[in-house]
Amino acid sequence: MLLLKLIYYPNILLRQKTKSVNKINFKVKNIIYNMFKVMYLNKGIGLAATQIGINKKIFIIDIFQNKKRVFINPKILKKKGKIYFKEGCLSIPGVFNIIKRYSYIKILALNKKNNFFKLKTKGIEAVCIQHEIDHLNGKLFIDYL
Ligand code: NI
User: Which of 28, 37, 59, 63 is deepest in the core (most CB within 10 A)?
Assistant: First the structure.
C-alpha cells in the first residue's frame, strides 16, 4: 500500500490544479485512507489531496474529532456573509494569519460511497472547507496576505 507524505510550501505540487475524480475505485479509496492518516498524524482539521502531491479533487475534514467527512469533486452552490478567522495550514508550519472568508456556504460533493450530498454550514467548518477548496485550485491562504 502506498504511503504518501505531507508536502510543504514552497513545493510546486501545492500549486497544481486538480482534476475531477471519474471513478471512486480502490486507488481513490487508498488516497483517502492516506489523507486521514496524514491529517491525524499532523493534528490537522482538514487536508486536501494536493498536500500529499495528488492532483485530484478530494479533501477531507474532521473539525470536532468525531465527524470524518470526505468531499470528492466539491462545488460551492451558495456563499454569503463574511467571517474573519485565524488560519493555518499543515503545509505551511508556524504561519497563522487572519483571513476573510464567506461565513456561510452550501456545498455539493460526492462521498466515498459515490453518493452526492449537500451540506450547508457556517463558521469554522465553512472556513475550513473554503481553505481546502483553495488547495484544490492550487491556492494557499498566504496568497491572501
Ligand atoms: Ni491548508
Answer: 59
